[in-house]
Amino acid sequence: MSKKDDPLEIRNVSIYHANTYEKVRTVGMSFAKWLSEKRNTPVFRMVTVSAEDINNYVEKRLDQYKRGEITAATLQTDISCLKKIENLVNHYYGKVDWDIPTERSARREKWGLPKRERDKTTVQRGPAYTKKQADRIVMEVEKRYGRLAADALRFCRATGCRLESLVDMKEKGVRIERINIEAGTVSLLEKGGKWRTVKYDQRYDNFMRELKSRAESSGRKGPLFACFGTGEMSGDPDYSQLTNDQLRTIKKSAARRLEAMVKEIAAENGFHGRGIHGFRKEFAVRRHSEYIQEIKELVRAGDWKGLSERFKVSEQKARDMVASWIKAGEDKKERRRVSRAMDNAARLRLSKDLGHNRLDVTFAYVPRKK
């Protein structure tokens, strides 16, 4: 059963993902430390926390945002985590009322919160790796840490997968049966228990075939990149005796190690701050460029039907795009308007490839040209 199958009262007191657990735990500990110092006591009961305490903490975090110490996204996440903790306290320990609105719009109105600005989170993570930079990192990782670690990075470049897919030891790890060579696709199980099937970059077709062949030869049926620290693929590691907490620790350790490999080599070569996410962005930039080119060809050919079918836009929008392009002629302003519509169509399809399904998210991966 997944999150979407549960009733609202169950979702309000449930945590479905390890990353969500870590966020809620981190925010809870940060709040507890702040309140302990404020009350000058090492311990306190959560049922004694008041709405005034929450207001004071949010005001403190809002001041940090205004000083540029945290982002709007971090501030919003903090409040969402406190709301989750309030629900959990009410469910397990006793009645509290922290007066945290459920709706984000109501939270913004109550505390004067800023809207989340994705453009401002892009800079700190950095742009996508160039092909030359990505090639360099993969080559050095293979030299220093072995083929399996390098293959994990190649897989990310080919599919735009998240780091979790590369390091998860359970169901979310990449598996041999989820690579469909004939269709040129990979199915990924990601956060929230959601599946997505993405066409992998065809430049990696030989890599995918070889990866699948090596997995079959070695008897690997579980996660393909488990134990990448050993350098080569072998049979499935035995995790049957490990608890979920132990598996989570192994997963976090693997994620940190893979990130460290990439950042170490990137720093040595003069480009910083992107880690594994830089490969996901590289995939997004390349895929967006391919989609734009495909859309332009369809529009110029007057193929509104193909445009509608391939990019899931309504027939009316597809017709309008084709007609507007023809009508624009040399009118630069009108051509810019049509180009913006084509860009949006490409981004909507890209967002599904990335597992987001929202156009606005793509600007963090592929900034729009000014």
From TrEMBL:
One GO term in the molecular function aspect is: DNA binding
Q: What Gene3D superfamilies does this protein map onto?
A: Intergrase catalytic core
| Superkingdom of this protein's organism | Bacteria
Q: Which InterPro entries match?
A: DNA_brk_join_enz, Integrase-like_cat_sf
Q: Which UniProt keywords apply?
A: DNA recombination
Keyword field contains Chloroplast: no
Q: Where are the transmembrane segments?
A: none
- GO BP field: DNA integration; DNA recombination
Can you say what this protein is called? Answer: Tyr recombinase domain-containing protein
Organism, scientific name: Pelotomaculum thermopropionicum (strain DSM 13744 / JCM 10971 / SI)
